[in-house]
Amino acid sequence: MWDSFFSKKATNFQGDLGAKPVLPVEAAKMQAAETVVLGKTEKGAAASTMQSAAAKNERAGFVGHDQGSDIARDQGVVISETHVPGRRIITESIGDQVAGKYSTAAPLAPPSIAEEGDDGITIGEALEAAGLAAGRKPVDWSDAAAVQAAEIRAPERTTTAPGGVGAAAQSAATLNARTSGSKDKIKLADVLTDASEKLARDKVATKREAEGVMGAEMRNDPKMTTYPGGVAASIAAAARLNQSDNSRDPD
Q1: Taking the model in full, what pTM does it have?
Q2: I need a labelling partner for 155 at 20 to 30 A (CA). Which of 10, 24, 116, 140 fits?
Q3: In sequence order, what are the beta bridge partners of 119?
């Protein structure tokens, strides 16, 4: 059963977002969060309703394509769960303001296709989530390094695969460095769409993989930071959720 809370305006929010139009960046962040936590964007959930509302607002000229709220930027998008016998209650929020709530008997994340018997969000799925959350970002050297680090850790290789997602990210960063206009640069979404299918083998994201990817992204960033919603941030979020799920499982 689903409870949806959106039309063109977020009229069911409490507080600052209640009377404001749904913005494209908020919708994209909610979509990325659902992909990480639920494994996909569910029809009728907050993300799909927000995407529809944001698209209408953008077509009508009410909002810009890259427009987002201070609350989404500063507090982020949160998907939490409450367990009751036989059900999970999922609550989706922007900051502390609820966007949607529903219950499901299905697991939050699909089984990993990489390691039979393990449940959790895989590295490939986390890369795809980064492509949604930060999809409009032009690929740079820090993104390429992070993608390559993730690809190496998925099948536990020592090098990236020719023609794989890591090689595509490196090629994109090289081309972008030679391209002056941001509009013509290759974006993360171009590289990370269907990333799971481009990996030789996938595996569940853990703290160890997240730390390695974060280190690679930071070392190749001029400011020694990671990008919000980017590759390292998405894999770190997946690792935290996997760890949280494992801590609840009985031995």
Answers
A1: 0.57
A2: 140
A3: 111
Between CA 21 and CA 78 the distance in angstroms is 19
Return the number of other C-beta atoms located less than 10 Å from residue 177's C-beta.
12
The tens digit of pLDDT for each residue in 85-112 reads 667 677 887 777 777 777 766 444 443 3
* Cβ 226 vs Cβ 140: under 8 Å: no
Is 216:148 a contact under the CB 8 Å cutoff?
yes
Sheet of strand 87-94: strand arrangement = 2-4, 97-104, 87-94, 77-84
141, 148 Cβ separation under 8 angstroms: no
Predicted local distance difference test score (pLDDT) of residue 200: 80
Three-state DSSP at 20 gives coil
Q: Is 245 exposed, middle or buried (0-12, 13-18, 19+ CB in 10 A)?
A: middle
Q: What is the pLDDT of residue 180?
A: 87
Select from 100, 215, 70, 194 the least CA-distant residue to 149.
215
Rounded Cα distance, 214 and 225, in Å: 9
Residue 15 token pair: 């507080």
Q: Could you tell me the two tokens for 127? A: 């890369």
How many residues make up the chain in this entry?
A: 251
Q: Terminal CA-to-CA distance of the chain, rounded, Å? A: 31
Q: How far apart are CA 210 and CA 151, in angstroms?
A: 12
